[in-house]
Predict the 3D structure of the following.
Amino acid sequence: MIIDLPSTTTSQVNSKLVQVREQGGANTLGRVLTLVIVTDDGERTEDAIDAANDASREHPCRVIVVARGAKKAAARLDAQIRVGGDAGASEVVVLRLYGALADEGASCVIPLLLPDAPVVAWWPFEAPARPAEDPIGRLATRRITDSAAEKNPIKALEVRQKNYCDGDTDLAWTRLTLWRAVLAAALDLPPHERVSAATVTGEGDSPSTELLAAWLSSRLRVPVRRVKATSGQGIVSVVLERKSGLVELERPDGKVGSLTQPGQPARRVALQRREVRDCLAEELRRLDADEIYEDTLKALTKVERARTAPKPKAKPVEPKAAEEPKPSAKRAKEVAAARPGPAEKAEHPAEPAAKPAAPKPAAKPRKKKAAAP
């Protein structure tokens, strides 16, 4: 159900919410937090609302959308309330602010916050340089941004690094969860050797690739190179160098990855690029500071940038026993000519000569009989 309230006030919106609650039952009492979405009014606003609705099925919440309209228009507040099938497992309040009200989002949000419930602020597209000092960011326990949705993702990531405060996070970091899990599991398998170097390859404007390289640098404390990929989307491959060989995790098609390492059969792992709704649902599971993300941001300056991946040092191969080469035809003739002849065999007989056969005795002559006289 969708209820439109044009040219209204926050008190009228709140009264309508109470009326809807009385008509629909006490289901709204099960909300665990308030999610405030801050964006400009446009076509992309509905994409953010859809992602929040899907995430609310895991985290029932009240979603308040602050959609800033044209600042040159007259000051006006147009509200819309969505419940039931149009709001997932939450209740959505869309506030479209025009004119001078466009910069007063926090004042319009405060009367609609759920009592005794944490507040999470989300900037799905462009975000302020320092979210913790934004009027809406000050109300929130957790502040979520998305560097990949900015016009210059790498520059936006550098801004996040300089202005980090406890409670800040980025969906570019959340997209690394599967990669981090697969790499950590691969290093848990034998042989348990220390990684000497690492190389991360990905798109040139992929903030997730930058964060993955920085995470490896902060956790493994080894030199890490970040290489721009010539093909593929997002993160393409990760190579870890160890004494026994290379641990390689590749995802050329953006869907299925291949993990190879010495002494283990090659395996295919699911590494499909995560949707915004999945990343948002994961971030709503925790409301405390993310120390690993903070350490990763600090390690961004330690990552080495390279155009091409260096050739990893291959493990020396043990030489095989030399096989006797087959003689050529010319060589065969020379060998045959060098063999001893019959005369030499007589001088150096290999076997004792056979004894000659004894001569047969000569037959005795018969005596002639005398002739008769």
Summary: The chain has two domains: 2-145, 177-306.
